[in-house]
Amino acid sequence: MVRRLSVRSPRLQRARRPPPSAPPTTAPMDPPSPPPPPPYPPAAAEGGPAADSQAAELPRLTVTQVEQMKVEAKVGEIYRVLFGNAPNANSLMLELWREQHVEYLTRGLKHLGPSFHVLDANRPWLCYWIIHALALLDEIPDDVEDDIVDFLSRCQDKDGGYGGGPGQLPHLATTYAAVNTLVTIGSERALSSVNRDNLYKFMLRMKDTSGAFRMHDGGEIDVRASYTAISVASLVNILDGELAKGVGNYITRCQTYEGGIAGEPYAEAHGGYTFCGLATMILLNEVDKLDLASLIGWVAFRQGVECGFQGRTNKLVDGCYSFWQGAALALTQKLMTVVDEQLKSSYSSKRPPGDDACGTSSSTEAAYYAKFGFDFIEKSNQIGPLFHNIALQQYILLCAQVLDGGLRDKPGKNRDHYHSCYCLSGLSVSQYSAMVDSDACPLPQHVLGPYSNLLEPIHPLYNVVLDKYHTAYEFFSS
Amino acid sequence: MAPSSTSSEGASDEWLPPSRRPELADVVPVTQDDGPHPVVAIAYRDEFREVMDYFRALYFAGERSVRALHLTAEVIDLNPGNYTVWHFRRLVLEALDADLREEMDFVDRIAECNPKNYQIWHHKRWLAEKLGPDIANKEHEFTRKILSMDAKNYHAWSHRQWVLQALGGWETELQYCNQLLEEDVFNNSAWNQRYLVITSSPLLGGLAAMRDSEVDYTVGAILANPQNESPWRYLKGLYKGENNLLMADERISDVCLKVLKHDSTCVFALSLLLDLLQIGLQPSDELKGTIEAIKNSDPEADEAVDADLATAICSILQRCDPLRINYWSWYRTTISSQT
Questions:
Q1: Per the CB < 8 Å rule, is B83 touching A219?
Q2: Which residues on chain A are in Cβ contact (under 8 Å) with B147?
Q3: Number of folded domains in chain B?
Q4: A62: distance to nearest CA of chain B, Å?
Q5: Are A476 and A236 in contact (CB under 8 A)?
Q6: Do B142 and B185 share a domain, yes or no?
Q7: Domain containing B232: what range?
Q8: Where is this region: Disordered (chain B) (predicted)?
């Protein structure tokens, strides 16, 4: 029998009902109860964006406007049902359908149909999307843990890193998926299966002269590669000055005039890359190189009338950005001292934030870097949620959930494991975003729907369930 | 010259499994090492399974041959996301000294059917890097084609940007941006591209030289569609790192005030005015009057009459932009920290 290192602390037990009638004493800094979600604007006219009689007078609508109106109409229909319901019907609509999600996820863990061949180079990702979603629901099945460890061991390359399937070239993205899966399983067998020495060598081989990382041998360079490399290296405690060298400068160059971060220098600001870039800078302890106020403003404006987040300006809402954008703002809630310093200096001088950065730390020790991820999560939030956390939960519960289990991009789309993972991750971030004391449980008013909707908290820098992170941190620190 | 990289002759024939092809008779297929209890097990169809088994045999053997090239094309057709196959294909192409122009035609046909695939665009970049500036126009034509079907395809835009910077073709790029923005002024990707051109084109003299005309262009776009976030962000971007110039340009506060006259709850206008005040703009009487009028239009206003202008704007924003009430509350704290 494998000895499980993970011991659940009582405070993390999933609540099945609201806390006792005497809730924990409200901290002095506890933010006020958030207002109800904003009223939904009137839907677009039935049958089309503009009535015929108006067409002659109004400018022609663009593709962007038409597509946006279609989505708003669909979402508006759902919300009107909610607002028109009796209160007890609402509680059903606002429930997280745990059993259905667990069934959908567990089935996918064992067997996937022929159409999944297009993900044949992404099987560690499938493991991660499924296992992480189950961990958020606190429902990891015991009987598959060893099989997953065995499978991922067959994806591990003899020279380090994990491929997208057995015998495939090692790739930083699937390495991230594999390591996060193993950390989420959390057993000694899982954690010890990671060959850290070879992993380190693989990552060094992926370093480019720009400081950034290639996804694989001869592969593409972008901010995702930097994040997956730095996140994994930090998580398993092999991050050092060599791996860190130049990464911060590369990511700084990817922050755009809009404030968000792009996949490459000059590309368009994008929610996924913004999260990846911001998290990487925090893990490197170089977050002061980013213009944080500009980034916060950009992300805050990605939450739209549908209550969910879009990935780019004037793009459509998508449930996965509940995590990518929601977590980015949640991270900045712990960075307010840095933000304040930047604002003071930017208002008093002509030089923009970042130009005054001192550059990479001269330290090269791995232990120096590992603690940034650890210390960060121990920090209290210095401010309440910077996004509308209740509205976001509303989008996820009402628009992203699929009745038969699984979650999706938006109404009208199909469920998939990727969106199940990132919608639930975003839901967790949202539920915990109002907490000031990092050891407390969220108050019921910060959890939309019944309190049983509450998910496990995550470490937002890695997107790993928090108690699994702590187990891994202890394991890899010894 | 190396043989063609396209599919072998007889494409119209019935598909023949690899195990029945004479040219592969000596190959021993390698099954996937999934272990005794596979997880996330995909129910592969026979065709997929067999082609992959033969691919693995050649890949593990490192065989850089014509038949390997053909087989990689087949695997790519089945699963274009398999980055290992693309990587191996590049090794084979190099070993065979293949005609990379033909390879670009091959990959373009695949890209049209899989326009959001990382591996395909990376392969194109690799090819374009080797083919050099001669291929710049062809690559621009290709990305135009993809963007005509999906105007915001992130990969197509990244490729277009890379080709511009590495291989050239700047001459018509601003005109292309104009065309796209005329078709859809909400196309944020086109605004982002415009920013690249304005700041980086070697033909235009850089942002300082272009700023004045770009401000006029952007103000026009704002006035035409004040609810379009893209030009508001672009306008501020034109003054990135130049707060003094931003304050000094009267067109900025003017466009905000014009918009607010027609829609007193335009969040973008209020937000930009707030930013201007934060960096030290001395408000004109017109600005003060406009904000006062908006503030007074709220019967529930509980603000002290002597609250400063920035705080007043924050209060207005908290009221008319409830989705971002938390953000504006935070922004408000940054105002008091300046006092």
A1: yes
A2: none
A3: 4
A4: 5
A5: yes
A6: no
A7: 170-240
A8: 1-21
